[in-house]
Write a structure and sequence with these properties.
Shape: globular
Radius of gyration: 18 Å
Number of strands: 5
Number of domains: 1
Helix content: 25-40%
Number of helices: 10
Distance between the termini: 21 Å
Strand order of the largest sheet: 3-2-1-4-5
Strand content: 5-15%
Length: about 270
């Protein structure tokens, strides 16, 4: 049994969404869900400690790195000087371009948008949690075969939802979209086991709902269904980070017909 923790990251703990799930290789079950307002790090520590010797995967909705070219361009830059290269190459990572090409959605530019502050907080949280757990660090995972311990990956809920053809989610983050969020929750039950006791919270708090979607992205990673960097991008991905999301939609996934069942389609992912 593996434990997955979904984290919809934000600068303020009150805006952080957290979800805990267990995954046995076929079924993903949501165990807990809450906001981070009571203390995100203390909640994360409790969940990791309670997992005992089981592998724990943190699926984090936040960039975990910056564009390699941006860093190189700023080393010797002086005020008033132009920056070389196309802005998209400076402010976007290889994984951002990959996501745009695959699903037609542009993830936020960590080098230019406010998401940079969220990324800073996400990395700070990883460091704080490592200290609380007595670890030197929490490393990123690059392969789905996890050993006991804690690893982290970067995920993007919009990309994960795009691979779920039954989920109509456009506009679900809007304040008044409670009914739409309810529809998203029902559609997600095709891919995971979710008790109705969480429905009110998930309808009211989109951050916690996104954390549940992060669990689904984490399960995709553990099954080897999330698409990793190509050979030519592996080194830069280690520097910039990588968004792990499914390589294709779930329309033909045979296990999707029963709640929470995620059996591998014939012929592999």
């Amino acid at each position: 049994m593996k434990h997955i923790i979904g984290i919809d990251c934000a600068v303020d703990d009150a805006n952080i969404g957290l979800a805990l799930g267990t995954f046995d290789g076929e079924c993903l079950q949501v165990s807990e869900a809450c906001s981070g307002k009571a203390g995100a790090i203390s909640t994360l520590k409790r969940w990791v400690v309670d997992a005992k010797d089981a592998p724990v995967l943190l699926a984090i909705d936040s960039p975990l790195g910056w564009p390699e070219l941006l860093g190189a361009s700023l080393v010797d830059h002086r005020a008033g000087q132009p920056l070389p290269n196309n802005p998209n190459l400076l402010f976007r990572r290889r994984t951002d371009a990959e996501i745009r090409d695959r699903i037609g959605r542009q993830s936020l530019d960590v080098g230019a948008d406010r998401i940079a502050r969220t990324a800073h907080r996400a990395l700070q949280m990883l460091a704080e949690l490592a200290v609380e757990l007595g670890l030197r660090e929490i490393p990123l995972a690059w392969e789905p075969s996890l050993q006991p311990g804690v690893r982290a990956i970067e995920v993007y809920p919009a990309a994960t939802l795009t691979a779920c053809p039954e989920v109509r989610f456009e506009g679900y983050k809007q304040a008044g979209a409670v009914e739409l969020r309810g529809q998203v929750i029902e559609a997600l039950r095709k891919y995971l086991t979710l008790s109705e006791k969480w429905d009110d919270l998930l309808r009211k708090d989109v951050d916690v709902l996104d954390a549940v979607v992060c669990l689904l992205a984490g399960a995709d990673f553990l099954q080897g269904w999330a698409k990793g960097p190509k050979e030519e991008n592996r080194l830069v991905a280690r520097k910039e980070g990588w968004i792990w999301c499914r390589g294709e939609d779930r329309a033909s996934e045979p296990g999707a017909r029963s709640p929470g069942s995620r059996k591998r389609p014939a012929g592999g992912a």
